[in-house]
Amino acid sequence: MKRKKLWGGRFDSSNAEITERISASIDFDARLYRQDISGSIAHASMLEKIGVLTHEEHRKIVQGLNEILSEIEEGNFEFVRSLEDVHMNIEYALTQKIGDVGKKLHTARSRNDQVTLDLRLYIRDECTEIRMLLETLIAELVKKAETHLEVIMPAYTHMQVAQPVRFSHHMLAHAWALVRDMKRLDDANSSSMVLPLGVGACTGVNYPNDREFLKEKLGFLSISPNSMDTVSDRDYVLDFLYFAAVLGMHLSRMAEELVLWSTSEFAFVRLSDAVTTGSSIMPQKRNPDVAELIRGKSGRLYGNLISLMVTLKGLPLTYNRDMQEDKEPLFDSVDTIKLCIEGMMEMIVSMEVKEEAMRVAVFSNYSTATDLADYLAQKGVPFREAHEIVGSIVKYCENNKIDFFSLTPSDLKSFSDVFGDDAVSVLNPAFSTERKLSRGGTSLREVKYQIDLIKKIILRRE
User: Fold this and answer.
1) Can you identify the CATH homologous superfamily of domain 16-107?
2) Alpha helix (H) residue ranges in 147-267
3) pLDDT at 9
4) Which listed residue (13, 55, 158, 280) is catalytic?
5) C-alpha closest to that of 363 among 426, 406, 409, 405
6) Mean pLDDT in residue range 186-209
């Protein structure tokens, strides 16, 4: 049965079926029901404060809205597509429940300021939940680092073995990227904390509404200063989508390393059965599906950001129906990010670190060549000359199919008489990390400092 449109007074006939289908957003914006009801309760309280509603009318509206909230959460509420969106569905249900007094609720507001209010409240709520998930993932990376402080592995540049690094330092590198993501999340949350309610359709309202009261009631930090900008602004959604895209990129890079490290060629880690799957034809396979899917989902996060930017780029002020397209990218990014964080957390928690495979890799690929060049530089050889000498030593080893650890002091001295008998010890990757004296390096002291610092950041929510 078709309901009469709440805006239908100006029209003689009903919409075409295609207009109903293309206009409806209730299939996806129903998830905003909590925020819509919260905003409506605050708005009703403001209307009572300025004398538009009596105390009894306010009581009935608030009671009716709370009953609708309970019905929705208990699964006893029917969302109707012909009523277009969550706002109209709730307002219609309220009027059916409490009579004509329900029709007073929309006084001094428009769907234009109502929808951006709901979105801002939604982002605020989701930011709180996502931040908790991020903090937990960072804490798991720190825990993994703490339990493997003495494990040495190769660091890579250009996917070639570069220098020895502590596995814990590598884990913390990913943790620091997520710390930056938390800052971007906090920024996105802050940009949503500007009250839009009270500006009406685009120019303000013909009532002495109390926006300061609404700000305090709903927990916003400030009030939007320009009514036209308010209803056309979706920068705060873009801020969240940008956060989600960058976080997706960081999670994708982590996932890529887990895919590589879990191959038989690397064998640096073993992903648990809980996060791997088998092959339909090859019985031996253990596929890193969770990591691959997280890596793949970064693309849709980028797409959500770009799609909304393209939607908004040509719109004149103020509200245009195109802006209804802001919700699905936002909702999808929220769901995708939460799913990916939880998936990554499960992989990190259950991941087995293969210390011996890492040790073999770092001992067999000339990973201490830079240490040897630094040894010469510290004895007065210009670094570029030292670099050339050590390069010649590596070439000699490759040509003779030997590794660094087959070299004797006399072998080294044949390349430069600056080498002393102690030079051989420089070749051992086990001691390389402790020769890193700079702040932010991979020495045990610096790794422990990083761990303490990240713990403080998480605890203080900085």
Assistant:
1) Fumarase/aspartase (N-terminal domain) (1.10.275.10)
2) 167-191, 211-218, 227-232, 235-261
3) 58
4) 158
5) 405
6) 97
